[in-house]
Design goal:
By secondary structure, the protein is an alpha+beta fold. The protein has one domain: Peptide deformylase (Peptide Deformylase, Alpha-Beta Complex). It has three helices and seven strands; from the N terminus they run αβββββββαα. It has a five-stranded antiparallel beta sheet with strand order 1-2-3-6-7. A two-stranded antiparallel sheet has the order 4-5. It starts with 25 loop residues before the first helix and ends with a helix. The protein binds ligand GNR and nickel (II) ion (NI). The site of ligand GNR has 16 residues, from strand 1 and helix 2. Ligand GNR binds next to strand 1 and helix 2.
Length: 171
């Protein structure tokens, strides 16, 4: 297991559309182990493979609260079904957009079908933070960041600051 580097916007790789996984193999599981370790180290509550530069449709997540036992979740080739008509706002952040938090409105419940750590098909009813996080991560698989859901003004302000920070870090 290893902690990998997390890509930050405006890295163009974050705009790639991730490809379906053919089969869940030991190699896939090794990648998911690295993703989880990277997510815990950040720390974050979810991570898509593209955030460490791997364009595969894989998400890891752990929504356990502080002091609760870890609750790692793995989603391979996830698909969202039946998003609810009602949307709720939630203040989102993203490890690839560090330091910025903004409200995003999304359907407050959905169902997700996916393959688990062992390659077994699963179906999960998601609501609350789980639904928010799954939809945030699904966006990453399409090359979408939470800032894309904001007004152009807010988005451009954030991207400008991130570019400036990157230039400062590189010099
Ligand atoms: O760690 C994270 N926290 C978070 C908070 C609100 C909504 C979504 C998230 S996901 C984020 C980790 C991340 O960037 N995943 O892609
Ligand atoms: Ni994110």
């Amino acid at each position: 297991m290893a902690v990998r580097e997390i890509l930050t916007a405006p890295d163009p790789r974050l705009r790639e559309v991730s490809k379906p996984v053919d089969a869940v193999t030991d190699e896939t599981r090794a990648l998911m182990d690295d993703m989880l370790e990277t997510m815990y180290a950040a720390p974050g509550i979810g991570l898509a493979a593209i955030q460490i530069g791997v364009p595969q449709r894989i998400i890891v997540m752990d929504l356990a609260g502080e002091g609760e036992p870890p609750q790692p979740r793995y989603f391979v080739n996830p698909v969202i079904h039946d998003p609810s008509d009602s949307e709720v706002p939630y203040e989102e952040g993203c490890l690839s957009v560090p330091g910025f938090y903004e409200e995003v409105e999304r359907p407050d419940a959905c169902r997700v079908e996916y393959l688990d750590y062992h390659g077994e098909p699963q179906s999960l009813e998601a609501r609350g933070l789980l639904a928010v996080c799954i939809q945030h991560e699904m966006d990453h698989l399409e090359g979408i960041l939470f800032t894309d859901h904001l007004s152009r003004l807010k988005r451009e302000r954030i991207m400008k600051k991130l570019k400036k920070e990157r230039l400062a870090a590189a010099s």
